[in-house]
Amino acid sequence: MATSSPRASDRDQKKGDGLLNRAVKVLRVVSTYPNGIGLSELARLAEVPKASCFRIISTLEDEGILFTDEDTKRTRISIGALSIVGGLLTEGGTLRAIRDILSDLSEASGETTGFDMLQGSDVVVLMQNAGPSIIGQTLKQTPRIQPPWLTSTGKSLLSYRDPDEVRALLLPHYPQDNLNQLDLFIESLEPARVHGYAWLYGALERDAASVAAPVLIDEVPKYALWIGGPTYRITPENARQLGQLAIDAATKVARLLTALREVQGLNDPISASSIGIGF
């Protein structure tokens, strides 16, 4: 009786694990597009070869998990399978997914990352993920409140607002003996909006720098993702590269929150109170 060798079994196991991993990636992306997504974009976002992505879609369609519209060629989760993958489109599932995105962003950037929102005239740090270079250091507690003019997330979140509105929001809280710096902050908002990310150097702490990108829902910045670290690692030379990493991660979060909003029917799918924060 013929038996497979241990080496062949290991190869088969690794091949199966690879296919399963790709299928999970495809499902994660499709689940954030309630109206469906095209094959090319799905393959790109899932980071799966197009041919493999097509085979995964075909298999999952045969199993009744995915459905592809013949007219639009867009693939979405089938009605019958929502109970299987619908856990992602709950508040708890989405928060876990955001933490995963922060973890991936820390790995890609080598720095600590976080997820913030603007509440009134304050930036609220909702989540953060320690970067690989923070060994031996202690992360600041979350949640925490920070002045928006001292953070790249504040700059990013305010960059879509009218300058006069920003001035009226911040003026009552800004140090009155340094108002010329408020003017400079407001002038820096337009470049941040144009570039898609904000960069701040030595503001909150003299030796710290950060970049941040807004999470746009219907073109409105509801939240922001940031990358933070020491000024000798986050520099003018690599700020653009880190900014693009933040933009890509913020886009992923925006898709998740848009899908969650459509399921829940809420304007703000994630709030400070939903993460157990009260002010």
UniProtKB/TrEMBL annotation:
Pfam families in the cross-refs: HTH_IclR, IclR_C
Record-given protein name: IclR family transcriptional regulator
A Gene Ontology molecular function term of the record: DNA-binding transcription factor activity
Residue ranges occupied by any IclR-ED domain in the UniProt entry: 80-259
Gene Ontology biological-process annotations: negative regulation of DNA-templated transcription
UniProt keyword annotations, A-Z: DNA-binding, Transcription, Transcription regulation
SUPFAM superfamilies: GAF domain-like, Winged helix' DNA-binding domain
Keyword DNA-binding found: yes
Stretches assigned to coiled coil: none
Domain of life where this protein originates: Bacteria
Record InterPro entries: GAF-like_dom_sf (IPR029016), HTH_MetabolicPath_Reg (IPR050707), Tscrpt_reg_IclR_C (IPR014757), Tscrpt_reg_IclR_N (IPR005471), WH-like_DNA-bd_sf (IPR036388), WH_DNA-bd_sf (IPR036390)
Keyword Transcription: yes
Ranges of residues in domain HTH iclR-type: 17-79
